[in-house]
């Protein structure tokens, strides 16, 4: 099968394979597209937590982005872990160089086990330099709270936070509702013209490591294949929901989900 599209992932590595670059590659490949990478950091982690984080030099991150893209131009870009303001500066300058239209930003800030993955200066840089450059930003509730300095307890709070991000310059926002204690998982898509609530089954499992990385990569894949931004969100949410349902139950902590479930999806992509 020939890949349907080409995607560049800019994110950190997860040695356990459940999140980060590893989850991104699995997702994109399972959905039928071709994955390229620019690694921003190397983490030593497993399902119980993060042991260490080693930063990649910002210049080398830029080299990965530009050198790769000049040979194989991506149809879309997924951005994950950007742990420092220097890294964000490097990435934004690189994006200006390669000029790709479809960019999805997953503002990774806190690992599933609670470890902080980004410093405070980087959070400010993310808000001032990157949010307004991307097609879609996909924060979970803790990330949306940090970015907007608001408390989120309800779906109305989620919509309010999303609109705050629109005020910061975001074009489209998907606030992920997995952290709310509700019967269904509600993910809310917001832009200046529309609000759409996606309802999913909440599965009783601790195995949700890498759901955010997986969702943003799935959305990027569908977007790169010609789907609308809202339809891409819907399809990505469905993919992640099935991946949680069929998780392999690996590890002693927050285990990974099942990226291979997509092999059974029969999606028609627009060429």
Q: What does this protein structure show overall?
A:
The protein is an alpha/beta fold and 271 residues long. The chain has one domain (6-260): 3-Layer(aba) Sandwich (UDP-N-acetylmuramoyl-L-alanine:D-glutamate ligase). The chain has eight helices and nine strands. It has a six-stranded mixed sheet. A three-stranded antiparallel sheet has the order 7-8-9. A hairpin with an 8-residue loop joins β7 and β8. α3 (85-98) packs parallel to α4 (120-130). The chain is globular, with a radius of gyration of 17 Å. The protein starts with 5 loop residues before the first strand and ends in a 26-residue tail after the last helix. Mean pLDDT is 93; it is low at 267-271.
In short:
The protein has helices at 20-30, 58-71, 85-98, 120-130, 141-148, 155-167, 211-224, 229-245, and strands at residues 6-14, 34-46, 49-55, 76-79, 102-105, 136-137, 172-175, 184-191, 195-201. The protein is α/β, with parallel strands linked by helices and 271 residues long. The protein has one domain: Ribokinase (UDP-N-acetylmuramoyl-L-alanine:D-glutamate ligase).
């Amino acid at each position: 099968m020939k890949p349907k599209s080409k995607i560049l992932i800019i994110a950190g590595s997860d040695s356990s394979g459940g999140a980060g670059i590893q989850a991104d590659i699995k997702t994109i490949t399972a959905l039928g597209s071709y994955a390229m990478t620019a690694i921003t950091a190397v983490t030593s982690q497993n399902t119980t937590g993060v042991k260490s984080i080693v930063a990649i030099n910002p210049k080398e991150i830029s080299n990965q982005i530009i050198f790769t893209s000049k040979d194989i131009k991506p149809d879309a870009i997924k951005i994950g872990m950007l742990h420092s303001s220097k890294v964000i500066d490097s990435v934004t300058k690189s994006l200006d160089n390669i000029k790709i239209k479809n960019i999805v930003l997953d503002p990774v800030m806190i690992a599933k086990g609670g470890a902080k993955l980004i410093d405070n200066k980087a959070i400010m840089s993310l808000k001032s330099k990157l949010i307004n450059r991307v097609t879609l930003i996909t924060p979970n509730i803790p990330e949306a709270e940090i970015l907007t300095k608001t408390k989120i307890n309800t779906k109305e709070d989620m919509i309010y936070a999303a609109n705050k991000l629109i005020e910061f310059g975001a074009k489209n926002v998907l606030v992920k509702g997995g952290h709310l204690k509700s019967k269904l998982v509600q993910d809310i898509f917001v832009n200046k013209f529309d609000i759409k609530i996606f309802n999913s089954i909440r599965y009783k499992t601790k195995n949700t490591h890498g759901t955010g990385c997986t969702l943003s990569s799935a959305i990027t894949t569908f977007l790169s294949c010609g789907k609308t931004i809202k339809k891409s969100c819907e399809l990505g949410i469905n993919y992640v929901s099935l991946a949680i349902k069929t998780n392999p139950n690996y590890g002693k902590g927050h285990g990974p989900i099942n990226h291979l479930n997509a092999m059974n999806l029969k999606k028609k992509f627009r060429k």
